[in-house]
Design goal:
It is found in: Cell projection, Growth cone; Cytoplasm, Perinuclear region. The chain is an alpha+beta fold. It contains 23 helices and 13 strands.
């Protein structure tokens, strides 16, 4: 019976829930005739199995591809959600700021509409107030009950010390009154009925601003347009006896008014300031007269009158300067505008406004350098607070970006923020954030280096990536901080730390280690070569690599020296002191090639020690000598490539120690042969000594002598061993 591979009924049998393989095989075997049907069935089953495996692999691949695409989409959506969350937070802060500003405006509008109603109510309390309310432009600002304070001096005689007068603390009495502050005057109304205090009559009317007349008035008007000097002065009384009080100086007279509580006093002072200095921010001018009680209690004299007159003139001058300073609307609204700009993350406009405010304040201080202007200091302080807030926002944004990973496509945006901090004068902070960006860029860039089959190729690519990023960082740094030489120290320190990280990474991944000396020397040679190229074009960083590699190289050289010593000891222990026999001329050529790779003229180097007799090729050197020569030449060649001054002494000591130890074994062999007739053996050993000193070590000496400087004296002492060994061989 034949089954079609495309027969769906046949394939459906495998999908049945109660499918049993044994029953299926028995049914197939019972229906098959001979081995031909069974072979066909086996072939078809194998074909179905292969197709199933192929479909399974394709499904796995498709699902894996979809999984990767989904993961990328999720990552992208996560980034967008994070950005959306940040934007929503900014919008929320902006809306809250606008809401607060609108609430302030609504309160102001509601106050304006309620003034008329409140004014009508006050007319019932003040019987003769209509006499002073005839001005249609007059508007009520604030009103309320006050206590007028009258001070009394009590003098007593103290007869203990020369009958001199001493003043006791001043006592005072209060009279209830009602204060009404208008846009142009302040009215004090007193009750005609002391007990009930339900009806009030106007007692005093104090004009808030001076009215200028005559020629001097015209000149003053030309000099100070829209500026009216104040006719009264408000003094914030800070005294333990009279609490919650303020004084009004008018025409050399002083009126002291007491409020119910500190909050009421603060409100009265703010209202007076808004009336006297309409362009001045509230709470910035609160005058304090520390000696008010004593001066008010003292009898008036000509000297005190002159002093008061001088004080009044100074304070009036201060008011004129302040109104001149706040003459432009943008100065008055600087604080509010900065709040809105920072909430909108409009850093450029905020920077421009801060710089403009700085320049304006500095020019004003230069023009009025002879006068004290405390209100300018307060203005500068408020701007500086917003400046600090701007710096914190920029710092937070850059740090958040660096935590997620910087993108080279947005470098201009990052560096624009750095320039903003630099223009504000925060150069150290700008430099720190620049280095933070470079740290993130270096980390993400090095991660993109692909692993190669050859480790040396990977190290070269890794070093190329590192130095390419370092070059870009240098040019970007110079472009931003070229006029700030003091910041170059931080940049150099950052480069040094990055070089240390690079060496640590290569060391941890065994690209620079004590296990494979030749491979390690190649990798270090790559690093030093790249560093030398960078140093010749930009900044000298080779010394940084040399310092970072010094201790590591000392350890590597010491470890490799110990390996050579162990091998040398083992070979000399088994040495038979017989010449080396080579099987063919091809082996001789191979030996020449090996020494040629080590940087020698191999034929000139080995020819004096090779003898050919009847097609028998012999090298009159011991096997241990030849093997040591290869190891010693390889060791010296690798160290010569990476030689620099910091490890010079370590290299010289290692080379001298190895050759001396090698000669020490010759000395021991000659000592054993003393008082014997083994003349040929002694001559053979001296042949090895001559090769080791006059050929092998002489080559190393010639190679290193131009580099090692004064350390050449250690090499010179090696040649002294030759005469000693000759004497031992001759004895």
């Amino acid at each position: 019976m034949e089954f079609s591979d495309a027969d769906p009924a046949f394939r459906a049998r495998f999908l049945e829930p109660k499918f049993e393989p044994e029953s299926f095989v028995q049914s197939i075997a019972s229906k098959s005739i001979g081995s031909t049907d069974l072979m066909n069935m086996k072939r078809r089953m194998h074909l179905i199995s292969s197709e199933t495996k192929t479909e399974l692999k394709q499904n796995v691949y498709r699902n894996h591809t979809k999984f990767i695409e989904t993961a990328k989409e999720v990552s992208s959506l996560e980034s967008e959600v994070y950005q959306l969350h940040s934007l929503l937070a900014d919008e929320k802060q902006l809306l809250n700021t606008v809401k607060e500003l609108l609430n302030v405006e609504n309160k102001t509008d509601s106050n304006d509409t309620s003034d008329n109603d409140f004014w009508e109510t006050l007319l019932h309390h003040c019987q003769s107030l209509g006499l002073v309310a005839s001005n249609s432009e007059r508007r009520l600002i604030h009103s309320g009950k006050l206590l007028e304070v009258k001070l009394e001096n009590i003098s007593t005689k103290n007869q203990n010390k020369g009958n001199t007068h001493t003043k006791l603390p001043a006592s005072f009495v209060t009279h209830q009154c009602y204060g009404l502050l208008f846009t142009d005057c302040f009215i004090i109304a007193k009750s005609s009925n002391i007990r009930t205090a339900t009806a009030y009559d106007v007692d005093q009317v104090l004009k808030l601003h001076q009215t200028s007349t005559g020629i001097s008035n015209d000149r003053n008007t030309d000099q100070h347009k829209h500026i009216q000097p104040s006719a009264i002065q408000i003094i914030n009384v800070k005294d333990d006896v009279i609490r919650n009080s303020f004084s009004i100086k008018h025409n050399l007279e002083t009126l002291t008014m007491m409020c119910d509580n500190a909050q009421s006093k603060k409100h009265w002072l703010e209202m007076f300031e808004s009336a006297l200095y309409p362009r001045q921010r509230r709470g910035s001018l609160l005058y304090t007269d520390s000696g008010f009680l004593s001066s008010s209690a003292a009898p008036s004299s000509s000297s005190s009158s002159a002093s008061n007159r001088s004080t009044v003139q100074q304070q009036q001058q201060q008011q004129i300067f302040e109104e001149e300073f706040y003459s432009e609307d943008w100065i008055t609204n600087t604080q509010e505008n900065l709040i809105i700009l920072l909430a909108e993350r409009n850093f450029d406009e905020a920077l421009a406004l801060i710089l403009r405010a700085r320049k304006y304040a500095q020019e004003f201080l230069v023009q009025h350098s002879q006068q004290a202007v405390p209100f300018v200091d307060e203005y500068i302080k408020s701007v500086r607070m917003k400046e600090q807030e701007l710096c914190k926002l920029i710092e937070k944004e850059i740090q958040n970006i660096c935590e997620r990973g910087c993108s080279t496509n947005l470098l201009k945006h990052y560096y624009h923020h750095i320039q903003t901090l630099k223009q504000l004068g925060h150069v150290p902070k700008a430099c720190d954030l620049f280095i933070t960006i470079q740290l993130s860029l270096m980390k993400s860039t090095l991660k993109q280096t692909k692993l190669e089959e050859l480790n040396v190729v990977f190290v070269e690519n890794f070093a190329n990536t590192f130095f390419t990023r370092l070059v870009d960082s240098y040019y970007e740094f110079v472009q931003i901080f070229k006029d700030q030489r003091s910041t170059f120290t931080k940049f150099i320190v950052w480069m040094s730390s990055e070089i240390e990280k690079l060496i640590t990474i290569l060391h941890n991944q065994q690209y620079i280690s004590t296990k494979n000396f030749n491979f390690t020397m190649k990798n270090i040679d790559i690093l030093l070569t790249k560093a030398n190229e960078f140093s010749s074009k930009l900044i000298d960083v080779k010394f940084m690599f040399e310092e970072q590699l010094e201790q590591l190289l000392i350890q590597i050289i010491s470890t490799q020296k110990d390996v050579i010593i162990d091998t040398l000891r083992q070979r000399h222990r088994d040495e038979k002191w017989i010449p080396i026999t080579l099987p063919s001329h091809e082996r001789v050529e191979q030996l020449y090639f090996e020494f040629h790779e080590l940087g020698l003229d191999s034929q000139k180097f080995l020819q004096p020690f090779i003898a050919i007799n009847n097609d028998i090729i012999q090298i009159h050197l011991a096997p241990s000598t030849l093997q040591f020569a290869k190891a010693y030449l390889t060791f010296s060649r690798d160290l010569f490539k990476i030689h620099y001054s910091l490890i010079n002494q370590t290299i010289v000591e290692a080379l001298v120690e190895l050759i001396k130890l090698h000669l020490k074994y010759y000395e021991r062999a000659l000592q054993k042969l003393q008082n014997t007739n083994e003349r040929q053996l002694k001559l053979f050993i001296m042949k090895n000594v001559e090769f080791s000193i006059n050929h092998l070590f002489h080559h190393v000496d010639t190679l290193y002598r131009p580099k090692i400087g004064h350390s050449v004296k250690y090499f010179t002492k090696v040649y002294e061993k030759m005469s000693k060994l000759k004497d031992m061989a001759a004895s």
